[in-house]
Amino acid sequence: MSLLLTDVTVGDRPGRAVHVVDGRIAWLGDAGAAPPADRVIAGEGALLTPAFVDAHVHATATGLALTGLDLHPSVSLAAAMASVADHVRAANGIILGTGWDETAWPERRGPTRHDLDAVVGDRPAYLARVDVHSATVSTALLDTVPGIAELPGFAADGRLRLDAHHAARKAAYAAIGADQRRAAQRATLDAAATLGIGSVHEMAGPEVSGADDLAGLLVLARERPAPLVLGYWGELAERGGLKVVRELDLAGAGGDLFCDGAFGSHTAALSSPYTDRSDTSGALRFESAALVHHVRACTSAGVQAGFHCIGDAAVNQVLDAVGAVVAELGVAAVRACRHRLEHLEMVDDGAITRMQAWGMVASVQPAFDAAWGGDAGMYVERLGPTRAATTNRFADLADAGVALALGSDAPVTPLDPWGGVHAAVDHHTEGSGLRPFDAFDAATHGGWHAARAEHPVGPLAVGAPAHLALWATAETLSAVLAGRARPTCRLLVVAGEPIGDRW
Question: For 6, 297, 309, 453, which has the most beta carbons within 10 A of its beta carbon?
């Protein structure tokens, strides 16, 4: 089937048309000279852009928040517990919630097991903190995880971190039924489509969602027109991670391969202690030798590796591992794999230099700075003002030639591609934000580059896959970016297939 999108504004040029044949852009030019097509959609001057790519998503968890218990709006501990109580009355089975953030609550603490038991009774419940690197769980859920009290990060009050948290999360998500899981995944893909997101990078792993969850999502995304799902599996090669990558034909072996945790949960690995907790610097989760083995195995197989690393100690541990493999196999072999660092919130000049030299990708979340940056944000509370001002160095990475891809880490922050672009520009730290068109490029073309699937001439060129978004605005792209607008997506086109038409 051929498709013609005519009378559209492409970039800053009105009166254009795009002809799509067999899922690819076959022609681009003035609307008056457009070739015939099986289906014609008149844009009436609307803005046409490449579709967004969200380079870091957890589809099932995001869908559960969209369809169930989302605690992001809670302004206090009391409000959060009231939301849990409402959900308990309306839902059956395990209670799953996410998004609470105690840093701005008047109580200045998160919920405990006793708070949760008081509203859920004898039902298993798991409430993830906003960063999903710690959680509060009910007594009933604790009772389902043998040996959890012996794991690092266990606390008798039910506020779990580190290995204890991972064990509890695995048990909680294992309790979700197949129908509920599928409904959650469909909700995420539908929400992404309405926002002009043509592809998501699903960051799965044994501690996140499981291989069956990922396999089901990949099948679901192929059953009907939907955003494309590029899957990543975060498990070390020595534990069988590459086997899953091959069996499911995934984009890479990594993503949320948790080398550390998160600032909010005091589990991101720092080179010096937290400002508000001098007793800890977070924790590295793997021995360096295991990371070297993983990078070596991936590079030898031509597979992209990826690593969740937030604190500077974790970032430098991963880069030391990559450097060891560069010394063994050569820089060309490493650059060909385009290994990824996810989040990368705390990076020094030396790390930026090494990433550029080794052709690595920075997969970052601008909404983190929007939520937690600034003079009174969580970054300052956890790290102090000096270190907080050096977080999320988007401009320095871009200026050094490090490839950037923007994502949301949903459900940590919402699916919101225009918001992510604007947050990348309006960084809390002067000089750390991106130029507007660079931010937009990182949110579109950057995602394809990060997955080693970009078109050599660009996403709006003849021959490129037709992943396009038509927006309900007659403004140019420059005007949308300058005005920090968030236009509504009228039509999403994925591989030439139209999804939705809201005019």
Answer: 309
